[in-house]
Write a structure and sequence with these properties.
Length: about 300
Amino acid sequence: MSIIRREKIFLCGHNGMLGSAIHNELKKKNFKILTIDKKKLDLREKVKVFKWFKKFKPDIVINAAGKVGGIIDNSENSLDYFNDNLSIGINVINASYRYNVKKLINIGSSCIYPKLSKQPIKEKYLLTGELEKTNEAYALAKICCAKLCDFYFKKRKKSFITLMPTNLYGPKDNYDLYSSHVLAALIKKIHIAKKKRKKNVILFGNGKPLREFLYVEDAAKAISMIVKKPFKKSIINLGSSHEISILKLAKLISSVIGYKVNFVFDKKKPNGTPRKLLDSSIIKKMGWRPKIKLRKGIELAYKDFIE
């Protein structure tokens, strides 16, 4: 009687917000999940990465590793954002090719599309316009990795794809006000205001930019679903298909937390991209739909923040 070998999935970045959610989803399926702490394997170091792949020979790779952060951190530490994300992505993708990985899911981001892209944003709009300056370094690094996957997909017939999630939030988010993304930052700001009985909370820019948000567990379910599916495209968007202004988001978070404040605009701070709503029709045709509505997701995120 032959024994069916369990496929090995190497999950890079398993301790992060998205990586943790993906890990939880994969555990429900019959995969052998390979993880390693970044202190033991620095994915920026090519020689070590290649040695690890040669030794453990994963069948599938999900690359959720990388340096991520908000507008200010991106702007002030652009060299780190470019070097770290480019090195991690290139090393993981090339090692996957060298050691014959069957499928690679590389995690990109909606923020690497042009600043003034047509809406909703289709995958083919990548590289059709100028990038948003506040996250240009991160975007360029991620674009290089997405294109490398695309070249392997087209030139070597490898099932290497880049998934482009919109703004993610949820358990294990980063709540550091210097480096966090907008939703997590607003949760912390409004929570502090409630605790200290402050009347005002400062918003960057004018509050008008529109953003799309996706609860991280919905994103993880999408990734878990497509692990075994064939692909016809090398870039696939992943979004909720609903957008909200920063000001309305702040008011919604205030409502969830149960503390009313006045929002004051710091117009010296950048707005970022005015709008970036994804066209997620490809992945929806593959059978995925988000389940967690924004208010419910914020309630769950705030509960996690409190804990």
